[in-house]
Amino acid sequence: MTSISILLPTYATVNLAALAHNLSRIKRYLSPGCEVMAIVKANAYGHGAVEIAQSLARQGIGQFAVASLDEGIALRQASLSASIVILGALFEEQIPDLIAHRLTPVVSDGRILPTLAKAAHSHQAPYPIHLKVETGMGRLGFSQDELLAVLDNPLLHSSLKIEGLMTHLADADGADSAFTEQQLAAFRAMLDQVRLRGLTLPLVHAANSAAIVRFPAAHFSLVRPGIMLYGYHTLPATIPDPDLRPVLSLHTTVAQLRTIPKGCSVSYNGTFVAKRQTRIAVLPIGYADGYSRRLSHRGSVLIQGRRAPIVGLVCMDMIMVDVTDLAPVTVGETVTLIGQQGKESIWADEVADWIGTIPYEVLCGIGSRVPRIYESA
Fold first, then answer.
1. CATH: 3.40.50.300, 3.20.20.10, 3.40.50.620, 3.20.20.70. Which one for 31-225?
2. CB atoms within 10 A of CB 11
């Protein structure tokens, strides 16, 4: 660890064995015939989309989903040959690149169909698309009436084909299951309308991470795990723990040590004033690396397997922690901000609790200038 820290003072480790474990746990919930579409948007929730997708592909995953065109292109350029679905909004100007990189669009607005059909016309076989229906999320998607109009559109019977139908569940991790049940009922009604028109849908998907665990009726032919792949969940406390392992750990290195006399301050605006002679460790990580400024005076880090509190405001490139009560700390020691040291651990869900957010935001926020180191065990 020390040799790594000298070369890379701040870095994240990504444990691919933990990723494999989480995938195996997810599969235990699946209904027969249901497969996994792995969500690797937002740089695989901060873990590195290319490396995560390649690892999952080696484990037999053949369906991936991202949010945007550029995320899909990056995976294609990394030689990922599996199906890549673009979940987010699609714009007409993006269609040539979408077709050129063999990416599958999720269409949620019929106005784009003519441009998409024209671009796909040169293909020997109809170009696959997924349709997104709105059942209660209040974002992208066709209403039931809009879906019926789209299904009768002749463009879907020429150069395009409906490969999949999907929706997005808004409250699958909520305490009350009623709203999710309503969404699923609406989705099944729309699915029936598609089938009444004689259309065969190979891929039907609705379940996010929480719904995989709580709503077997939402499994259909695919599920879309995101946060569960990376070792976290937001399930109610009444649901048995799915036994996941966090995949990412975040580390930095003690860059400097200094003694602050009683009455002196640390960091901007003097928000921390030492009440005693205080030993401070300066760490080369800050909000530009995704370590939130909201962690000022709230967060802790691990040094020597013990917690050390953040003092003063988190800076763009540095934080300061109080190591007065630890054994003598030396420059070059490894510091863990997310992960485990000895018997003590701090994971992204705890960091999220400190600042009133969710682990998704903590993980996705880890910046691009933090290198990721991939470990198989």
1. 3.20.20.10
2. 19
Residue 172 tokens read as 């699958």
**Active site (annotated) includes residue 360:** no
User: Among 132, 161, 232, 268, which one carries the catalytic annotation?
Assistant: 268
User: Of residues 29, 41, 45, 291, which has the active-site annotation?
Assistant: 41
Give 197-222 as a DSSP string: TT---SEEEEE-HHHHHH-GGG-TTE
For residues 34 and 9, the answer to whether their CB atoms sit within 8 Å is: no
pLDDT, tens digit, 9 for 90 and up, residues 116-159: 999 998 777 889 999 999 999 999 999 999 999 898 888 777 88
262 annotated active-site? no
Per-residue model confidence (pLDDT) at position 175? 93
| CB within 8 Å of 134: residues ≥ 6 apart | 108, 140, 141, 142, 143, 167
**Prediction pTM value:** 0.94
